[in-house]
Structures are given as C-alpha cells and as structure tokens.
UniProtKB/TrEMBL annotation:
Keywords: Methyltransferase, Restriction system, S-adenosyl-L-methionine, Transferase
EC class of the enzyme, as a word: transferase
Lineage: Bacteria, Pseudomonadati, Pseudomonadota, Gammaproteobacteria, Methylococcales
One Pfam family matching this protein: HsdM_N
Record-level GO BP terms: methylation
EC number of this enzyme: 2.1.1.72
Keyword S-adenosyl-L-methionine among record annotations: yes
Taxonomy, superkingdom: Bacteria
Keyword Disulfide bond appears in the UniProt entry: no
Ranges where the DNA methylase adenine-specific domain occurs: 139-450
Family (UniProt): Belongs to the N(4)/N(6)-methyltransferase family.
Name the UniProt record assigns to this protein: site-specific DNA-methyltransferase (adenine-specific)
Length: 849
C-alpha cells in the first residue's frame, strides 16, 4: 500500500529534526541530504544494467553497506572511508568537499551519542516507502519533491544569514517561464548557466521547462553549497550537469579560451548588494569586458553580477536575474549603468516582487528580464508590479499558484493591466522627470483608489452617484439590480408632516433654492412642501436588511449565477474523462497542469469572477488532498482498501484504534450507501442535545443561593440519588424531590441515548468497513471523482459566486450607512439629547452653566 506524499515528507522531516539536537540546521542539512543522495543512487544505479551509469557505486559503498555499519563504534569513520572516499574516487564530478564529515564529534557528539545519532539517521532512510528505484515520470518522481521539501525547511530553519543556498521554488518557476524556454525551442544543443547557482534549484526549473536534457552549467562560491548542487543535479536525473566551485566574478570557471563562455539562457539569484564582490579583482582591470558601461560601486555588487550575466549571453540569449529594488533607482555609478542598460534595448522587462520572499533577506526584490535577440526592435520596458501577490507562510511570504500564473501570463502577453502592468516607452523613461529611474511606482500606480468622502452627501444626505458609478463592473452585468435598489435622491422645500424640522430644512441644497424650515401639526399636506430630484445623488429603495436577498433573488443575478455554474459544469464534463482515465503509473503533475489550465481558461471570460481565484481553489485543493490521492492511484491504481490503525505501547502491547482509508474516507461511503443509518444517528444526537440542554437549564434554574443544587460540589447521579433517599417522604421536600427526579430522569434519558448512539455508530462503522471490498472500480471512481473532488470544487466555485453578491452588498451597505444621517439631523438629535441631559441634571440639583 502506497503512502501519501505529504505524510512521507512530513514524517521524514520530523524524524530528521528530532535527531538534530543542538546542531544548526545549516549544518545538519548536509548530513540529511547526503543520506537522501546515497539512498537514491543506490536504488537507481546499484543494480542497474546500464554499462556506463551516470554515477558509479563501487563495491562496499552503497546505502546497503551503510546499513551494515549501524551500531558499530567506528560508524562515523567507516562512512568517511568506506562509503564517501570510494564514491569520490570513482566519480570525477564528485569531490570530498561535497560531503560532510561523518566523524566530527563537535557536530555529532562523541562515543555512543554519535553511534546512536548516525544509526538512527540511517534507519530513517530505510523506510520501505523511500524506494527510488522506479521514477514515476521525468520531473515527476517522489525524490525530487522530497529534496525540495527538505531544502525549503532547512532554508527556513537556517535563518537570515545561512538560508541563501535556496531560491524559493515559486520564484524559480517564474524565472524559468519568463525567459521563454520551452520544449518547442529547446534543442539538444541548448545551454543554460547560473553564475551563482546555490543548490541548483533555478537551473533545474529551467531544465524542467525545457522538457528535455539540455546542457546545464553553474558556478557556486561556497564549496559545501556547490556539493549540494551537484547532488541535486544527480537526484533530479541531470547527472551530466557541470557545477564548479569558485568566485564567479574574480575567477569565472566557464570560459572559451580567455573569454567568458556564452549561453542561450542565463538565470541567477546573486547575493543582494554584495559588499565584497570586487575581492580578487584589480580595480580597472576588465579582462572579460564586463564593465564597459561603467564599473559598479565597490560596496554594491548587484550590477557586477548583472553585467557578468549580460556578457555571458549569446547574441540571441535571454536571461533573468533576481536583484534588490535598489538597482532600479540608486544613483551615481549605478545610474550610469542603468541608463546604458535601457538604451541598449536588452532590458525586456522588470517584475516587482513582494518583500520577505527570500530566505537570505526580508527586503523586496525584482526580476530583471534580459533579451538580446529583440533588442533593436524594442520600444520600451515592460513593467509589472506583483508586490501585492503573495500569501503568508509562517514567518515568510510565498507566491501562490495564482500569483505565479498571473505574472507569467501577463508578462508573456506583454499586456497592459491597470494598477498591475504596462509597457513603458523609452521616451517616458528618458524624460527628464524620470531620468532613467526605473522605480516601478513611477510608472505603475498599484494603490487602491481612494474612497473619497462626499461633504454634500454628509450635509444633505444621499449616496453619491459617483460612488455607484465606480461599481460599473457590476452594473454592466446587473443593470436591473441598480435600478431596483436605487432611486434618485429627493429633496424637500418644506418639512414633512411632523413636529420635527426637516433634515433638508437648513442651508442650501445643490441645485435648489434656499429651503424654508416649516413646522406643521396639520394632517393635510402643506402646499409649500415639494419634492424634487437632487442631481448626482441616489437613495436606497429598500431597507438595508433586504438588499442582499434582493440581489440574490434578482433575475439578472440568477442568470449570472446560472451562467457561471454552467461554465463549471462544462469544465467538469470535459475533465471527468481525464480523471477516470488516470490510473496506475500515470503522471499526477501532467494531470493537474492540464485540468488547471482548462479551468483557468474556462473562467477567464466570466464577468465579475477572478479566474485566477478559482484556479487557486483547485491548486489549493490539489496541494491539500488531490495530489496525495493521485499519487496513491498512480502507485496502486483505483484501490480503496481501509487499513487498521494499530498503536504499540512501551511494553509492546498493541491496541486497535480503528481504521482509515485515505482515498475514500468513511464519510463518503456513509453518505452514498448508508444515508438512512446516518440520519437515524443524527436524529438520536438531536434528541441527546435537547435532553442535555434541558438538564443544563434545570441546573441553572435551581442553582442560585439556597437553591436546590447550590450545595452540590459536583452534580451527578450518585449525589442526586443520595439526596432523594435523604428526603424520603418528607412533605416539605416535595418540590425539591420533583426537581431531583426530573433531573435524574433526564440523566437516564441522556445515558440511554449515548448508549444507543454508540451502538448505532459501531454498527455503521462495521458496515462501512465491510463495504470497501465490495466496491467496483467504477464505484470507487464515482466516490472519488464525483463525491469527493468535484463536490469540493463545486462548493468552491459557489463560494466565489456568493462573494460577488457579498462584496456588492457590503459596499452598498457601507455607502448607505455613511450617508444615512445628514449633518442637520445629527445636530438636531444632539441638541435634543443635550436638552434631555440638562433636564436630568436639573432634577438632580445640578446647575449646568
């Protein structure tokens, strides 16, 4: 039986974390990731029939040989000499510096402590579910995701100064997509390079987008991190990737002769504002012609890395680099370089990201996209401000799937989107008022429109038509709703038939003569009183409480709802065959990519709904549930077999804690096959709740001072029975006896109902358990696809439809309440209250000045 991916990864992390002890995560990761590496290459290559495997495993240097070392007093030394040493000697791409010292007492403890820690670490990777001998599909194997999972956690745990080895995978995916590489344009000769490759995640995302084995090369200054990158490449089935150690700026390793090697694609996440970038470089010496636009400041290395990237591109090359926002607007030497960059036409676009996305820093960053191929034809720079697109994830921010997709869609289409993205012409950038400053707020106002208060509306009442017009997107779809909810604001030239002054009786209304304040006790209309429309203002025709039902019940909203539901049903109809056709050895990642794209495209034309929000619902559900389900199906097929939950205590005794089925949890079986039994249980539970409430009410009613239950430390059946015996047939205790017997009767009813419910639930539980073996494959598919997956997604779409009405209702309520009471009326109410207060004070003998 396969294990869920989420359970596997979380248990792997939890087990490893328990063994860490006092070691820093930035160091402990090296031991864990080496174990993952040795386990993977053993599973994949130890028994391979390949005569020239990418990784050679010498006899005695496999994970199986490590298992034999468990418990031995010299386990650490043996791992170093019998496992790591032979591996390095047999594989030229590996270096001893790539791997940690397994015999370091400062990190692993001494004596028994080291033996126990290393033995336990080996045991973690002995789990049978960690079998990497069979990849499910290219870029879709369990190992690659496990590595990403561990790297993210280690980066999170390592802190600011030590988490720079890992670029968040979401940002890596954006970069890999915006440079434009795809299976259509990637050839066998395509090359990709990362001059500051860290653990290699950016290069691997580029390779994944290419869809085939392109040439990957990278350089990393930190020796240990370079080792992680080499292992990462092997773990992701790119064993031929060339990762070298060294300082890229001072001593670049990838050269053709004495010049920098050039590539089709370059990606990078260099250290932000590197203050030591010039170490090893002679001032003014530019052997590789990188700084012809000007030399970057000695204490700001951002442009040094960018210029190295541009120099490393072929004439038609494309690149993307993550840099701090400061590169967009800082002056002096950087301003000179920035002007040259813009004038060159190489800068295709800028993507602004939110703060706190990266593990090495909390400052906001941006992606500079370079495209040499179309430089001469370029008319401007495409700017995109995605700073608001993220979700909180622990102490960091993270791009959601919808954020990634929206960025890539918008950038690929170079589409103007208000408050989000636009193509900025070179003339606008070069204008003296901007002077080649590329700070995004200069060109994109991403702020929400200000909610302006209307003074006239506050003085004289009425909702400004301007505010209603701002809801134009709604009225285009629901014009009749506006007409049904609002009418023109009326003003009066005289008071209404009451003893109170008219709220419109003061001052001068817009477009009117001066109003006359009149009082009248007459039941007949005053001939001077007239009502006329006040231009530019409206009023609700319904009470506030009726606004939401009116929107929901309106024919136009019903039609809008039906159209959106029809869109979902169309997608469901088209998607169900893909889901039913999914089976053993199928590729989950290919499935979700297909159905998610179809869902997004289905709802993009839908008015009032954000297609990316609906897309996010699917991607969230995929991460929470569907992904695990699909990996179970990919491993075992459409099998729904419940497993018993057995716990073992310290004495070795086992206890059955029930059962579980991950693919089809019990509620789905019950809902489809045992609805009557469940309804009967729920009816009994309702009876139980009523009886319990009655007993509680009885206790509260007679629990005051000197009341019947006031003397009880704990009201229970035994105490009540004792009191009944004590009262006997005493006529003076008749009332108390009646209450106590009533309490006892309710208690017996509660006990009986609890027993009945427990027995019924046990019977239902057994029926559900016995149902699983009888399920046909078609029934399993119906339960999973219709009852579980589609029911959840349908509810999510309905939630988005409800949100449309709630948002509209909320804004209408806000405006109605804001202008409900004109200022003159407030003044009158305040004056009336002041009179009442004065009268109360007078009665109390207080003379108010």
């Amino acid at each position: 039986m396969a294990i869920k991916k989420s359970d596997l990864y979380s248990s792997l992390w939890a087990s490893c974390d328990q063994l860490r002890g006092g070691m820093d995560a930035s160091q402990y990761k090296d031991y864990v990731l080496f174990m993952l590496f040795i386990k993977y290459i053993t599973d994949k290559y130890a028994d391979s029939d390949d005569f020239a495997p990418p990784v050679v495993i010498p006899p005695g240097a496999s994970f199986k040989d490590m298992i034999a070392l468990k418990g031995k007093s010299d386990i650490g030394d043996k791992i170093n000499t019998q496992i790591i040493g032979p591996l390095v000697n047999a594989n030229a791409r590996l270096s001893k510096s790539d791997f940690p010292d397994f015999n370091d007492p400062n990190k692993l403890g001494e004596g028994k402590d080291m033996v126990e820690k290393l033995s336990n670490l080996i045991s973690i990777f002995q789990k049978p579910e960690l079998d990497f001998s069979k990849n499910r599909a290219e870029h879709d194997d369990i190992l690659g995701d496990a590595y990403e999972y561990l790297m993210r956690h280690f980066a999170t745990e390592s802190g600011k100064s030590k988490g720079q080895f890992y670029t968040p995978s979401e940002v890596s995916r954006v970069i890999a997509k915006v440079i434009g590489i795809s299976p259509d344009n990637a050839k066998g000769s395509t090359t990709a390079y990362d001059p500051t490759c860290g653990s290699g995640s950016l290069l691997l995302k580029v390779a994944a987008e290419a869809g085939k084995h392109i040439t990957l090369e990278g350089q990393e200054k930190d020796v240990t991190t370079a080792g992680l990158a080499r292992m990462n490449m092997i773990l992701h089935d790119f064993p031929t990737a060339n990762i070298l150690s060294g300082n890229t700026l001072a001593a670049p390793k990838f050269k053709d002769g004495e010049q920098l090697r050039t590539y089709d694609y370059v990606v990078a996440n260099p250290p932000f504002s590197d203050k030591t970038w010039s170490t090893g470089l002679t001032p003014g010496d530019d052997a590789y012609q990188r700084f012809t636009w000007g030399e970057p400041p000695a204490k700001q290395g951002d442009y040094a890395y960018l210029l190295h990237i541009i120099r490393s591109l072929k004439a038609n090359g494309k690149a993307a680099c993550i840099l701090p926002h400061g590169v967009l607007f800082r002056g002096n030497a950087e301003a000179v370089i920035r002007q040259q960059l813009v004038r060159s036409g190489y800068l295709k676009g800028i993507i602004g990201l939110s703060a706190n996305l990266f593990y090495g820093t909390g400052i906001p960053a941006c992606i500079l996209v370079i495209d040499k191929e179309n430089a001469t034809a370029r008319k401007g720079v495409f700017m995109l401000d995605a700073a608001k697109g993220f979700i909180k994830d622990g102490n960091k921010n993270r791009l959601r799937e919808q954020d990634i997709h929206k960025i890539v869609d918008t950038f690929s289409k170079q589409a103007d989107v208000p408050r989000y993205a636009r193509m900025v012409p070179f003339d606008e950038i070069a204008d003296p008022k901007n002077d080649f400053n590329l700070n995004l707020p200069r060109y994109i106002d991403s702020s929400e429109p200000e909610d302006i208060q209307d003074i006239n509306g506050h003085l004289n009442g009425g909702i400004p038509e301007r505010d209603l017009d701002a809801l134009a997107d709604y009225w285009r779809v629901l014009p009749g709703v506006r007409a049904a909810l609002f009418s023109p604001r009326l003003e009066e030239s005289a008071a209404k038939q009451s003893n109170q002054p008219s709220p419109f009786g003061r001052g001068q209304g817009e477009g009117t003569e001066i109003n006359v304040l009149l009082y009248s006790d007459s039941p007949h209309p005053n001939p001077l009183q007239q009502e006329r429309e006040r231009p530019g203002y409206a009023q609700l025709t319904l009470p506030l409480a009726e606004v939401k039902p009116a929107i929901f019940g309106h024919a136009e909203f019903t039609a809008f709802n039906a159209q959106a539901t029809e869109r979902f049903q169309g997608w469901r109809h088209a998607t169900t065959p893909l889901l039913t056709g999914f089976g053993k050895d199928s590729h989950p990642k290919a499935l979700i990519e297909t159905i998610a794209e179809d869902l997004l495209n289905t709802f993009k034309p839908a008015p009032l709904l954000d297609a990316y929000d609906i897309y996010q619902h699917l991607m969230d559900y995929w991460a929470e549930t569907m992904q695990d389900d699909c990996y179970l199906i990919s491993a075992d097929g459409w099998v729904a077999q419940p497993t018993r939950i057995v716990e073992t205590d310290k004495k070795g005794k086992t206890k059955d804690k029930g059962w579980v089925c991950d693919l089809i949890p019990k509620p789905y079986i019950v809902a489809r096959y045992f609805a009557e039994e469940q309804a009967a249980i729920e009816a009994k539970q309702a009876e139980l709740e009523t009886a319990t409430a009655s007993q509680t009410e009885l206790e509260e009613e007679h629990n005051g001072e000197d009341a019947i239950f006031s003397g009880y430390d704990n009201i229970n059946a035994a105490a009540v029975k004792d009191r009944i015996k004590e009262l006997g047939k005493d006529p003076d205790g008749a009332d108390e006896l009646k209450v106590l017997k009533q309490w006892l009767e309710l208690g017996n009813q509660i006990s009986g109902l609890k027993k009945q419910i427990k027995e019924a639930e046990a019977v239902l539980d057994q029926k559900a358990y016995e149902k699983y073996p009888t399920l046909s494959e078609a029934e399993i598919k119906t339960l999973v696809i219709d009852d579980k997956w589609m029911a959840h997604l349908s509810a999510a779409v309905q939630g988005e439809l409800d949100r449309v009405s709630q948002t509209l209702t909320g804004r209408i309520r806000q405006l109605a309440e804001r202008y409900a009471t004109p200022l003159p009326q407030l003044e009158d109410e305040a004056a009336a209250l002041a009179v009442r207060v004065a009268e109360h004070l007078k009665k109390m003998g207080v003379v108010w000045p």
